[in-house]
Structures
1.
Amino acid sequence: MITEFRRSDALRCMLVDAPGGANLAAPTESIVRCRPLRNSTFWAQSLGRSSNRVTVGDWNGVSLSGLASARVRSGIRSWEVDRLHLKDTGQTFDLLERAVYSAGCRGAERVFLRVPYDSELVDAARKVGFFPYYTEVHLAGMGELTNTSVTEFSVGHRTPTDLQGLFQLYCAATPQEVRQGIGMTIDQWNDSQEPAQTQRNESVLKLDGRIVGWRMCEPFGKVTAGQTLGHPEHPDSTRYLVSISYQTQNWLVPNYQQNVSELLQRQGLQELGRYTMLIKMVSVPVGSRDYSYVEA
């Protein structure tokens, strides 16, 4: 039987260190740390009074046989399934369907799910309504410092006033079919950004007052993960941002940023894995107890 978790369920799982087995979802922190997320941290989040996480379990009597959990990204309209534990793939449909429903009741308009590229979960998730919008490559290693001289750009830390300029950069550098999944408006895009796990270091490049490049570095324990975005009309911005990030050991690069992958591989980084990002658009009437999905 699949039910949404209560506090007593979470406490019971803490006592027996459940769930067991591998997490079949692939959140960023799990990829860059190359180790599973701790159950203790997960349940501590679930026991909080915040509504920023929903967890559903498939119970066989008093034993937990499967689990799906989703958390808010950067805004209540965008969620991500970051924990998925199954005894067999036959549980996938019901667990994901119930997790999406529970997130929708809390305001979710889109739900993200990243899985390994060759995972059989891609087909299973598509039956629930998830669609693969793009793939990502995980590159890791230590790059080499190259020529970082730049004269035409001004470089500075990101500030709150940069939000509109960063959204314009996103629109210019991201294919429309991908933006349909992540978000077409500034509010949708902002809500869909991955939540900060630690203190981030974000830089922006400007040309004549307009943002033409962005770089983010975020530490996860002893390693650092990086992302970047450059304006297609200013390829030097991407080269510069990659060059100054030579100490960043891990990158998740979407397939529509092939130039970033090539630059990082020239610096000596190696591919460690590929992933598929699936996104589901959903509208769930909050007042209804019946499942009701509307594809956007």
2.
Amino acid sequence: MQIDAYSTTVGKPFRVANKVEATIQALHLSQSLTPSKKEGVFVITHESKLPIDVFGFPITLQAYNRKTITVYDERPYRDQNNNKVTNSNEMVIMRLAAFLQQDVATNNLTPLKQARNVTTKAFADSVGNLLINRASLGSNNMIGRSQMVSDEALTLKVILAHYFIGLEEPIGSDVELVTINVLRNIYGTDKGYIVGVLEQIDVDGRISNLVLLHKAIVSCPTLYKLKNLSFKDFLHVIGTITFAALGKHIVAAACECPTLMTAFVYGAVVFKSYKNTPLGLQLDPKFNQKLLEGFTLGIDLAYNLNG
């Protein structure tokens, strides 16, 4: 399972540039990290004594005492002079991502798996609809102007959901079977249809990253209207499903990191500022009230997300 965003296609360059592990080890050793309300999770604040760059993603690693810890950075969401919170919504999102990440790293997958149906549907619908609109509009004549019919749209969402479900499954699990069960719950899709879509995927093994997801989409015969979508444009599209203070790369990395995506989905449900984003539009309580109530209740019971 993809545990943290620093291991994603988009996040890897930042892991090297920020010297993540060495910096966190030094902070932990010097007791410059602030404990959170969850055991094993620590926070970087403006009170940290070392001059370090901002960490865009929560990071999980083995500390000097050999315990697994997760660290996230609250400085982008606080005033540098007095440490007062300036962006409480996104701070809660990153806090939840860190809490989920620590649980996954210590083999507690329950909160993440309980949220899977909502998170998978929100991801597949938001990314899928953006790509469908892109194909319909034919931006710069790059993809084509004919509309994608409903069969094409559902095929795209099945591939997106299958990819995201695979990110949460351990090596050796039957991802196809899990996909069939999840998609039956969220879309009511027939098993035969799902199997037929998955047989079109031109990827050896599971779709484990955004590079392979892009390949699966553009090489799918049913999705021929998307065959000329470049990887660069694909990253641009997925980076716009919601917003982040530090940029689109945070959102793009979340599309390869279930813990971070689950946190963004939670934010889109509970914070009004996200309701008109592509992600938020797929989580309108008028159409999903009971499902969303169960989703947020599960998160709120599992974690204390207050400051």
